[in-house]
């Protein structure tokens, strides 16, 4: 009856709780082992599909990080002009970029009182990471500002001859192996003298191919501005 009430096809997830009368339960189930109900094959397939980890690019991570979000009605702000609460939007932008760019990937997620490790493969470039699309457009060469800014907080204008170098090259990766209960850290580093990548695992150091640097264990990425 619960499935029929939810319409055609049923809801994506159903949890039924049965409260037994003690005498009825003892009459139906002779032991605790008999209480276990085997899940249908469709349930197992859904669990397998949900457990499969997808992949994404580092560029997609930055796009989500700087994506404009609609504020909830409870977070409405009072407009200084019309004096009426307005449901606004919020957006994070990168204002300036450092010579050394350290990117910390979110590998742990908290659900209720439990924390889980995320093993999604984040594909990141070893050379030529272009951060220009993710930097706030603060002005044009002629000095005209893009967008509308509050008069008491004008955006910063860079000197006319200041280069806008947004290309970065990777030089190290910190990896985390294991789970919340126990883990181990390793690193991939690019030797500045020979340009080759090496794997560092405690006292063990060995060469690795560039194709082996991007893994599901990548935790912290270290980039350097190309022309710094």
From TrEMBL:
Reaction catalysis annotation: Thiol-dependent hydrolysis of ester, thioester, amide, peptide and isopeptide bonds formed by the C-terminal Gly of ubiquitin (a 76-residue protein attached to proteins as an intracellular targeting signal)
Record keywords: Hydrolase
Stored Gene3D superfamilies: Cysteine proteinases
Transmembrane regions listed in the UniProt entry: none
Gene Ontology molecular function: any one: cysteine-type deubiquitinase activity
Organism domain of life: Eukaryota
EC numbers: 3.4.19.12
Pfam families xrefs: UCH
GO BP annotations, alphabetical order: protein deubiquitination
Protein's name according to its UniProt entry: ubiquitinyl hydrolase 1
Originating species: Ptilorrhoa leucosticta
Gene name of the record: Usp43
